[in-house]
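Hey, I'm writing a tutorial for new members on how sequence and structure tokens pair up, and I'd like a real worked example in the thread rather than a made-up one. If someone can provide the structure for the chain below, I'll link this post from the tutorial.
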Amino acid sequence: MKQRLCRVVVAATAMFGVAMMAGVAQAQEDDEGIVFEDDVVEEAPVDDAAIEMEDDPAIEMDEPEDDLPEPDLAEDLADIDGPTPAGTEGPAPVQTEEQVSWQDIVTVVRKPFLKQQRTEVTPLLGITMNDNLIQHVQYGAQLSYYLTDVLAVSAEYFRYVPTLREPYDEVAFQARRLPAVNKYQQSAALNFSYVPVYGKFAVLDNYLLHWEAYFTGGVGFTQSEVIPRDPAFQPFNNFLITPNVGFSMRFFLTKFLTVNFGLRDYIFVDSFEPANRSDYATPEDAKENADSVLINNLMFQAGLSLWWPLSFEYTTFR
């Protein structure tokens, strides 16, 4: 009886053990279908050749040499494109920063004409612009010295050639009376000039003509003479303090030659023959009783300037 009971227990135990083993095997097969990315660790494939080399005692590994050159990125990039043919240069190395040299500096063209510490001699011709009774043609010269390239001091002297115009005779014929007219004999002045504007323009797209504009102001004198209505009376002269202002332009032809054009306004108070000239026997009495009138003698002037020294040198680098 006891032997039979032992057999039953052993059989039950064996069956329970088989059932447990079958359950564990089934669980392992189910786990192979589930993959957790965080827990899975991929193993690198094993090279059979490497295993054979480790097992073969006849194969020895070379030790790294200490005197090998450092790798060069530029050469490696050049090797990618293939070998460079003989006689040709390889590609230029890549530069991370732009290199600057003297050739990269752009310079501004210098002024072709310098005036500082140079003397200008200018013969001038002028003509009256605003007097319809008498016209004066002036001729003379101006001597200028430039303290800087834009500031100058100058002196001028002119003589005048008067000409009575047609309206003078027309007034006398129609109104039966002659207008009071003075003629200018000479004038001189001390002036200062300032050059605020400088420029250039192309002539026929082939030649650059440089020019500048300048203002002039100064003071001097003008000598005028009365033209008597009656030739029987003697004329008298006037010595007049004369400020002047003007605007001119200068065109540069060479390093020592320029052409000038400008307008000049000579301002003075002139004395004209009195209407009742017959009441004064002498020219002095007539001058004391003369009629005073403010005159703006506007002249158009043109001249050709010669500069000394004939050449100049730049004192600064380009």
